[in-house]
């Protein structure tokens, strides 16, 4: 197995808490000059096969077969985007344009995408999915989760999961995105379908089960029934919780030991306390608030309470059509009270926690060699230079994938 050293790294983000005092769960985190990022200056990373085998100061790096000069730039773990909806067809340009222009718009929201997705061929759906994955990879995302939820029939939901599973291990069954239009008058019948025949068809293709727990989607009792049924089939829960209003989603996520409660925009003190006392990660999705001109989630409040926070894109054609984790980092720093270091941690190690993974989101021996070189000396530039394509090169599983070798 050949080995490669990436050396001459100005700032290396390891996310190894032992390298710096403080931890992401510390309430003083970020305020005393301490970083959660386990930073190493003048650093090197050694890769063997698909794994990191060594990190440290460049001058101490062991001999290797190959050498890459990072040119005094920053290196960090590939982004872990733990929340996206990439199996869909069509787009919702008109809906976005109307919303941003202050004009009324009465089309069907998610239902518009459901109609287009059902009408698409497998090849069309997969081509769309791979296009967005390539786009995300160019922006540094090396691990991603994605969901069904635009089929809402047994056949269309299981098809979406089969297609997603060709591209990632982190596949989520979201048959409970909204009540399928055919069941508009019989939501209980739809819950019975999701927990019965649809779950039977979908469980073999997914790792996770998710519910949109919100007024107009599924209430707390329905969400509990769906997540509990999924868990009985070996799927682990995650929840779309407290996005548009206060509600039971976060408490339910904690009760069921969900890996993640996603959105967390409208939280009571009891919700924050519940998260702080649990393993459930609060996944914040600022692309959604940006694209709907909604109130920002308060990341500072969560971090100060000791909650583990992840940052993800929520990439979907309706409410957050961005695949850019760097963009979400910039928003989180500018508008959600996160320090640049906290935001970078949340988009890497935080995303890994939200997927209950310890083999990604860090650059320490044993982790996958998923990393990116920034065209900047420090990861702070991700927020300092918003909108600038700073990702210069990406390695995934020990191979350079962006720009592709010629
Ligand atoms: Zn979502």
From TrEMBL:
InterPro entries given for it?
Amidohydro-rel, HutI, Metal-dep_hydrolase_composite, Metal_Hydrolase
Alphabetized UniProt keyword annotations: Cytoplasm, Histidine metabolism, Hydrolase, Iron, Metal-binding, Zinc
Instruction: Enumerate the spans annotated as Amidohydrolase-related domain.
Output: 75-378
**Residues annotated as region Disordered?**
14-34
Residues binding Zn(2+), per UniProt: 83, 85, 240, 314
* UniProt binding sites for Fe(3+): 83, 85, 240, 314
What is its subcellular localisation?
A: Cytoplasm
For the ligand (N-formimidoyl-L-glutamate), the binding residues are 150, 316, 318
Give me the comment on cofactor binding.
Binds 1 zinc or iron ion per subunit.
Reactions mediated catalytically? 4-imidazolone-5-propanoate + H2O = N-formimidoyl-L-glutamate
Q: Which NCBIfam families match?
A: hutI (TIGR01224)
**Main role?**
Catalyzes the hydrolytic cleavage of the carbon-nitrogen bond in imidazolone-5-propanoate to yield N-formimidoyl-L-glutamate. It is the third step in the universal histidine degradation pathway.
Which family is this protein grouped under?
Belongs to the metallo-dependent hydrolases superfamily. HutI family.
What is this protein's record name? Imidazolonepropionase
The species this protein was found in: Streptomyces marokkonensis
